[in-house]
Amino acid sequence: MVNDETNPNIRRLLDTLPDEPGIYVFRDGERRVLYVGKAKSLRKRVMSYFRNAGPGEGNARIARMLKRIHDFDFVVTSTETEALLLESNFIKHHRPAYNIVLRDDKSYPYIAVTLNEEFPRVMLTRRPHRSGVSYFGPFTRAGMVRDTLDLLGKVFPYRKCRGVKPGRHSGTPCLNYHIGRCLAPCDGRVSAEEYRRMINRVVALLSGRSEGLSRELGQQMEDAAQRQEYEQAAILRNRLKALEHLLERQKAVAIGADSLDVVGLYRQGDSANVQVLQVRDGSLSDRQSFFLKNVAGESETVILQQFILQYYNEAVGYPADLVMPPGFEKNQLLSEYLSERKGSHVEVKTALRGKRRELSDMAAENARLAFRQDQLREEDRKGRPSRALAELRKELDLGFVPSRIECYDISNIGGDQAVGSMAVFEGGLPKPAHYRRFFIQESGEADDFAMLSQVLARRFSRRRLDAGSDDPSFSSIPDLIVVDGGAGQVSAVTGALEAIGERKLPVIGIAKRFEEVYMPSRPEPLRLPADSRALGLLKQIRDEAHRFAVSYHRRRRDRVFASSILDGIPGIGPARKKAILEHFGSPERFMSASRDELEAVPGLPAKVGREVYAYVHRFSQTI
Q1: Tens digits of per-residue pLDDT, 539-564?
Q2: pTM over 0.90
Q3: What is the DSSP string of 186-251?
């Protein structure tokens, strides 16, 4: 029986549901996807959401979702396995608000291999979402990734330069080539095919397939020695040692299986932790930890099933066996799904005894411990700003905890293109939506005090004008004003505020050299301990204001530079100007470019490059 409070539109649509496998998509009134699920019987599964019986204990998330559902779609499939695959694709594309999701893992480091480039790079990244790039990880520590990359770079002489195209502006090989750490694709000393074969071996090693690699390097070393190529033999010897060290770091527990992933789960409330123990070449080589949210009201089977869909959706390699926790009920379904994606059979089962059961228990215990650690870290992270604010109130003798703090800074070069910035923290945390920039009008000379006075006067005149407006950045009143500087800057700001009738706002300055705090009421600066939470908060907002001001100043300076320097050169139109700026990246780099470098700019004729060099050289002699 359908609940009487169910939306009439939903009641009509329920009658159209077939008793077949497929996926269902719940949407809100604006057609946004709320939830994607799969079912062996669409009719039975979707109807179960709207029966008279209200949601049970732990189903508050589902109850909130049901109140927002205005419409739903469904897609019928031939089998439940097809539905599982389709559900995975829909979740990946729409990222619904009420599906179980992996917590954003941008903070976790990965090893990335840019397979979409002619000469791929191997590097550390924290953004594992670019197409055409293979990712390995996540790792728990960036130091572990850097150590691994250092060892990989000794074994495989792939390029270490950062650009999409290999090489430097000069076109000559860098030091890495001369010390045997790079094959110099920038200089044509290795073909794309040979370089790609090396990268394939890197990918194989990172995927856990190291069989035969040590033996191959050892044979190459012996062959080089027999040919009396002792220098090459020494290079191969060093690579072999680096490889052996790398493999030793990866090995932990031998269990007699070639390729195996072991999954463990711990859940509490609306969150959960999943651990994946990776066994490669018979050894436990890595442990990965993931935090899930939106799990309240879901069974452990559903949680693990949706996790597996997301975890293996972007996987480079699949294990031969997948060990799930006891009680998991979808072994056959997941086996069919993973086998279809891998192209060969993947066995999914629970471990009942032996070494695999020990690893399964280890994964479950690690999940419990990781969950508790994350709880403690989260509690500490949430409490850190309030503790810093309380300490700041005490150190500054404010008499109240400052909720809104505004910090101001000036950026200019000799008064040219001078700008000011306002960074805002509320509750001890940055509030970027309230940050504001100011272009200093008619600065004329590098007078930071006058510039600060102008910025403060304009900011608080806007407060009066915008009182009750939709711009809370100007209409809000700060509890504390911080200025990047010392006693002179504090005096300038205090005088500017008094001039416009804002005498009651507390003002302090924090100077970079000794990180001293300047206050109008103290003749001597206040020195806080280096580990002080209050000092850490002041430095953070000071650095934010500085960063915001400098970035604005650079943009204005570069824009003026581009229009004033390049616009005066004959033969340089918008397209060539853009090509020059994109090639060199910064005005400083352009100004220091040699004639050969200017002649080599893509899209710029050599003759025009020489003319540009002559013009810039002539210009530089007159300033």
Answers
A1: 999 999 999 888 877 777 666 655 55
A2: no
A3: GGT-S-HHHHHHHHHHHHHHHTT--TTHHHHHHHHHHHHHHTT-HHHHHHHHHHHHHHHHHHHHH-
